[in-house]
Amino acid sequence: RDPMKWLYIYGVDGLSVSGGGTIDGVGQEWWARSCKRKKTQPCNTRPPPRALHFEECRGVSVQGVTLQNGPQFHLSFTRCVDVKASFLRLVAPADSPNTDGIHLNDSSRVQITDNLISTGDDCVSMVGNCSDVRVRDISCGPGHGISIGSLGKNRTTDRVENVRVDTCLLTNTTNGVRIKSWQGGMGSARDLRFESIVMKNVSNPIIIDQYYCDQPTPCANQVGFAVSSLNRTE
């Protein structure tokens, strides 16, 4: 069994997940083993599973559900098209590691709207080759804010384009909106628009980090990642 997969849906078209129920990932045991929570503890070589993960699906809708205490990401989509995630409640303690609310990887035509997200990591994150993404009416916090990246890890080529984030409230988050790329990565992040975002008690409201390095020793100084057509409005 793949430890990365708990509730895993592959290759399904036209699926709707809805209702007022709660999915509890009971992630406490996994968090206790994380070296991110206990710095003196060696990192666990077996990554925790994602709570609800869709891969290579089309026309997926997830709405009206509570996902809580995920061992890792609460709701994630990989290589999916035409996705709607709305009216969700995604919650975990502020110190729970890697518990992103909604995570996108290589997915397009995605609508993330009207959600309450309170976790220990990014409220919404998107990585390699995502496009045509709309994030709207999100209440985020605590957590790490809304992130594009990290992009270009291990010198890979990643592209993220046509992303709109608007009408969001971020409260007590580490970051507001963030774009992060690895040194040596290739590709681009372009046509990104952030507007009508209210931030309260946010440590780093806007971050563009082209020297992202998630390791204890410094990463080599290499060519950076291209960021273009970035717009921010009140």
Rg value: 17 Å
The major beta sheet can be summarized as:
11 strands, parallel
Q: Considering DSSP H and I runs of 4 or more, what fraction of the residues is helical?
A: under 10%
Give helix and strand order, one letter per element, not per position: EEEHEEEEEEEEEEEEEEEE
The CATH topology is Pectate Lyase C-like
Give a brief description.
The protein has 234 residues and is mainly beta.
Could you characterize the architecture of this molecule?
- With 234 residues, this protein is an all-beta fold.
- It has a single domain, classed as 3 Solenoid (Pectate Lyase C-like).
- 2% of the residues lie in helices and 56% in strands.
- It is built from 1 helix and 19 strands.
- Strands 2, 3, 5, 6, 8, 9, 11, 13, 15, 17 and 19 form an 11-stranded parallel sheet that branches. An 8-stranded parallel sheet has the order 1-4-7-10-12-14-16-18, with no helix packed on it.
- The radius of gyration is 17 Å and the shape is globular.
- The termini are far apart.
- The model has no long low-confidence stretch (mean pLDDT 89).
Which SSEs are present, and which pair or pack?
Layout: E1 5-10, E2 16-18, E3 22-24, H1 28-32, E4 50-55, E5 58-63, E6 66-68, E7 75-78, E8 81-86, E9 89-91, E10 102-105, E11 108-118, E12 124-127, E13 130-140, E14 146-151, E15 157-171, E16 175-182, E17 186-200, E18 204-212, E19 226-233
Parallel strand pairs: 1-4, 2-5, 3-6, 4-7, 5-8, 6-9, 7-10, 8-11, 9-11, 10-12, 11-13, 12-14, 13-15, 14-16, 15-17, 16-18, 17-19
Protein name: Polygalacturonase
Active site: 144
GO biological process, one term: carbohydrate metabolic process
